[in-house]
Design goal:
5 strands, globular, 3 helices, alpha+beta, Heat Shock Protein 90
Length: 131
């Protein structure tokens, strides 16, 4: 569990690095995982928790022989995944935000985006590559 501010990302970075090393993931997969975890964490802090430092973001990684499941939970009300603007639409190209889930979707499969008790849970599935 991380405190609800973006400076906690350094803790997440180290966690993902150690996890990836323990699992023997390739450098490319590690970099993709880091990028998506950063995007999901920043979205959880900024949009889910509305940058309230008293709220937490929980992240879990669960590896099996063929897949990696990652869960990111914040204290927000959630969002409609299908209602988000397309960041590659010419009208949105110069917006300063709105690309996080687009990046995540290009690397991982979003298998759940749902209410979870008093928060919101995003679950991602990856097909890792190993060294």
């Amino acid at each position: 569990m991380l405190q609800g501010n973006s400076s906690a990302y350094e803790v997440l970075y180290r966690f993902v690095a150690l996890f990836s090393q323990d699992e023997g993931y390739s450098t490319l997969f590690f970099e993709e995982l880091q990028l998506t975890m950063k995007e999901a964490f920043v979205n959880a802090v900024k949009h889910g928790n509305k940058e309230r430092e008293d709220l937490n973001v929980s992240i879990s990684l669960t590896a099996s022989a063929e897949v990696l499941l990652a869960s990111v939970r914040d204290c927000g009300n959630g969002f409609n995944l299908d209602a988000l603007p397309n960041p590659v639409d010419p009208r949105n190209l110069f917006r300063l935000s709105g690309r996080g889930l687009y990046i995540i979707r290009s690397i991982a499969e979003i298998i759940a985006c749902e209410r979870d008790g008093d928060g919101w849970l995003l679950t991602l599935r990856y097909r890792p590559s190993w060294q």
